[in-house]
Design a protein that fits this description.
The complex is a heterodimer of chains A (113) and B (119).
Chain A lengths: L3 E4 L2 E5 L4 E7 L5 E7 L5 E8 L4 E4 L2 E6 L4 E6 L8 E7 L10 E2 L3 E6 L1
Parallel strand pairs in A: 2-11
Antiparallel strand pairs in A: 1-3, 3-8, 4-5, 4-9, 6-7, 7-8, 9-10, 9-11
Chain B lengths: L3 E4 L2 E4 L5 E7 L5 E7 L5 E9 L2 E4 L6 E3 L9 E3 L8 E8 L14 E2 L3 E5 L1
Classes of the chains: A mainly beta (113), B mainly beta (119).
Chain lengths: 113, 119
């Protein structure tokens, strides 16, 4: 089963509004990553947050991590039509498990003009 | 230009045929990965390779095979044993080389994908 599960599965908002996506995971992690995928394209890395960080910012992106609840959220502020994409969280295996990531099921974001 | 490429972009295959998807990177990354993506199901790991001449099965390896003879290349063969091969296939690479003592903070770089359709 997937390590990460995103919520909601789909989100439709108006341009200028904020978009919040959530990710829940099952096992202990030492970092969590978020990726973006435009339709029919490869994924692009957005941001990595470590387990000792509670919040991290990158431009209009804000990511939080709550290790006690095993959850993370991605907030996109002042959304634009170009933000329309699918967003995935990804988690690594425990130490010694190598470099592979487990991706969640994704949130499809649609930003309408 | 540094990057990761996949070819072809679209591929059509008749049932019962094997087909090989190409993945090449010039990022000097040790680790490479193959994922399958079906609508609404996110990415599922097929095979991964942490170093040249070595690879491991992922979550859905049945019906697929790979090789890693060169650092920059990680081709995926979809065999006739794969029952439902129609999907979007994504290749990725990362720096890799983890000592194994700590959990990885590798970020992955993805190719543009190959859409395989079985006719």
């Amino acid at each position: 089963s997937q390590q990460g599960e995103e919520d909601p599965q789909a989100l439709s908002i108006q341009e200028g509004e904020n978009a919040t996506m959530n990710c829940s995971y099952k096992t202990s992690i030492n970092n969590l990553q978020w990726y973006r995928q435009n339709s029919g394209r490869g994924l692009v890395h957005l941001i990595l947050i470590r387990s000792n960080e509670r919040e991290k910012h990158s431009g209009r992106l804000r990511v939080t991590l709550d290790t006690s609840k095993k959850s993370s959220s991605l907030l996109i502020t002042a959304s634009r039509a170009a933000d329309t994409a699918s967003y995935f969280c990804a988690t690594p295996p425990p130490a010694g498990g190598g470099n592979k990531l487990t991706f969640g099921t994704g949130t499809q974001l649609k930003v309408e003009l | 230009d540094g990057g990761i490429t996949q070819s072809p972009k679209y591929l059509f295959r008749k049932e019962g045929q094997n087909v090989t998807l190409s993945c090449e990177q010039n990022l000097n990354h040790d680790a490479m990965y193959w994922y399958r993506q079906d609508p609404g199901q996110g990415l599922r790991l097929i095979y991964y390779s942490q170093i040249v001449n070595d690879f491991q099965k992922g979550d859905i390896a049945e019906g697929y095979s790979v090789s890693r003879e060169k650092k920059e290349s990680f081709p995926l063969t979809v065999t006739s044993a794969q029952k439902n091969p129609t999907a979007f296939y994504l290749c990725a690479s990362s720096i890799g080389g983890t000592s194994g003592m700590t959990a990885s903070t590798d970020t992955q770089y993805f190719g543009p994908g190959t859409r395989l359709t079985v006719l």
